[in-house]
Design goal:
The chain has helices spanning 26-42, 54-57, 62-65, 84-88, 124-137, 154-167, 174-182, 190-197; strands spanning 8-13, 47-52, 70-74, 116-121, 141-149, 170-172. It is of the alpha/beta class.
Length: 198
């Protein structure tokens, strides 16, 4: 199964400026998170951010925060516990005005559900893990971008990947996401996306 840009949403978990210096390979991880957010913007994929206890840990890195449609401040380690699921799967709107009286085949079709959740973040074994597991439980397809995830130690990060793979998440890289969203070198955004990756 390949990622579809039209069915995807990007979730960026807790890339907080005060937290990043203490994390393993944090500069490369943040650079990949920025690439993902820029690619998502380019390909019209919604981008959501989360921040763990921002009054103590501060906001996400400013460049990343600026690329998010919205950012969820949270105290629970899982963003789903704080309402992320409602952002990812908003309640269906009832037909408005005269549209209610039209036969079904003439009514405007509902927006397709974006059930593919591409997720990266910090700390992989705590907030990212708990958020991703809750998303899987809520029947989203979860794609964990391994090179955009980190923890204080490599061992904790890798343990999170093992557990997530065992729970049914797909493990991918930033470039895998980019080229699956594009699908072809003839895509109108191919050159711009390629420039972000190189």
């Amino acid at each position: 199964m390949l990622l579809e840009a039209a069915e995807s949403q990007l979730v960026l978990v807790d890339y907080q400026a005060r937290l990043m210096p203490a994390l393993f390979e944090s500069e490369a991880v943040l650079a990949n998170a920025l690439r993902l957010a820029q690619l998502a913007r380019l390909m019209r994929v919604p981008v959501w951010g989360t921040e763990q206890n921002p009054s103590k840990l501060g906001e996400n890195a400013p460049a990343l925060r600026a690329l998010c449609d919205r950012t969820l401040a949270k105290m629970h380690f899982s963003a789903v516990e704080e309402g992320l699921g409602e952002w990812l799967r908003p309640p269906a709107k009832a037909p408005q005005g005269n549209a209610r009286s039209l036969p079904k085949h003439l009514q405007k079709p509902a927006e397709p559900e974006r059930s593919m959740i591409v997720i990266g973040g910090c700390e992989a074994h705590v907030c990212l893990l708990q958020t991703a597991l809750d998303l899987l439980e809520d029947e989203f397809d979860v794609w964990v971008v391994t090179d955009a995830c980190t923890s204080r130690t490599e061992r904790n990060r890798d343990a999170a990947f093992d557990r997530l793979a065992g729970a049914g998440a797909e493990l991918v890289t930033t470039e895998m996401v980019a080229f699956e969203w594009l699908r072809t070198a003839e895509h109108p955004d191919f050159k711009a996306a390629q420039a972000l990756i190189k």
